[in-house]
Amino acid sequence: MVNVSIARRYARALLDVAAEANRTDSVAEQLAAFVKAFEQSSELSDVLLNPAYSRSQRNQVVDSLIKVVGGVEPTLANTLRLLVDRNRLIYLSDIARVYRDMADARAGRVRGHVTSATKLTPDALEQLRKNLQQLTQRDVILESHEDPSLLGGVSAQVGSVLFDGSVRTQLEQLRRELKQH
Predict the structure, then answer these.
(1) What is the DSSP letter of 119?
(2) Distance, CA of 91 to chain centre
(3) In whole angstroms, what is the distance from residue 138 CA to residue 154 CA?
(4) 142 Cβ contact partners less than 8 Å away, ≥ 6 residues apart
(5) 122: helix, coil or strand?
(6) DSSP reduced 3-state for 163
(7) Tens-level pLDDT at each residue, the chain (181 residues)
(8) What CATH architecture is 2-105?
(9) In terms of Cα–Cα distance, which of 35, 84, 78, 89 is closest to 56?
(10) Can you tell me the distance from the alpha carbon of 62 to that of 17, in angstroms, rounded to the nearest whole number?
(11) Helix residue ranges per DSSP H, the chain
């Protein structure tokens, strides 16, 4: 629970400063890229999170990473340095997740997940996105996944609402109804 409140505090501060500069989405993209880099490189994670390394060593690594990436928003660079100084870099993935959620809420966006038995065409995915936008009255950003066990149809979750039109669910519903009679 502590990491959620810490993540929320840093994410809110970062979002407020990024919003003042009108750089909210740019910071979100770069923050996600840094999280991905930390998750994909065990050596990088070890240096940044292992207490055996000094704060100055971690600062050097973060500064080098910022230079290598190039074009990093100054607000994000300062936040990364602050996290190193306060030994809070371990919360970076939580901060990124909370930041993205707060930025989406501020922009009137909602994220959704679409699961289908086979890969959806770009046109079908766009039509589904438009239909979900009409239902939710918000801008919807969709991620699609395939799950052959659905047999057919589509299942979409937007926020906390699940729209399930999969054949598997329809067959399960039919089975339950037949058992009751």
Answers:
(1) P
(2) 14
(3) 20
(4) 111, 112, 113, 114, 125, 128, 129, 132, 156
(5) helix
(6) strand
(7) 457 889 999 999 999 999 999 999 999 999 999 999 889 998 888 888 888 888 899 999 999 989 988 889 999 999 999 999 998 988 999 999 999 999 998 988 888 889 888 888 999 899 988 988 888 888 888 889 898 887 777 888 887 788 887 777 777 888 888 888 7
(8) Orthogonal Bundle (1.10)
(9) 84
(10) 20
(11) 2-20, 24-40, 42-49, 55-69, 74-85, 92-107, 122-136, 167-180
Distance CA 35, CA 54 (A): 21
Spatial separation of the C-alpha atoms in residues 86 and 74, rounded to whole Å: 18
Enter the pTM of the model.
Answer: 0.75
Q: Where do we find the tokens 């339950």? A: 176
| Residue 11 tokens, joined | 């994410």
* Structure-token pair, residue 66: 């910022």
Question: Which pair of structure tokens corresponds to residue 127?
Answer: 């039509």
Q: List the chain domain ranges.
A: 2-105, 108-180
